[in-house]
Description:
The chain has helices at 3-6, 15-21, 24-43, 62-80; strands spanning 51-58, 84-91.
Amino acid sequence: MPADEDHQDAPPIDWRALLRQLPLLNILGVVAVLVAATLVVVKNLPDHGADQLLNVSYDPTRELYNVVDGTFTKQYKDKTGKTIEIKRTNGGSAPAGP
């Protein structure tokens, strides 16, 4: 007798009854692992945005860093092929404190 004929008389699987037999904590554990694995994969997907740098300097050097940042951005693009965005913040030049 072929193996397929043995299973023809088997009753169909009642998935609802099977799921009722599993403890709720097991189901929640599997769901938690799937959610965690999904989050890890999504977090590690490559970001295709531009690289960024923050240039923090004093106000008197603003013009100098306009030139330096522009030159560096061009050299970085030529060397790596990647675009880089340089953000700047310039503090005041007044003395701090009395």
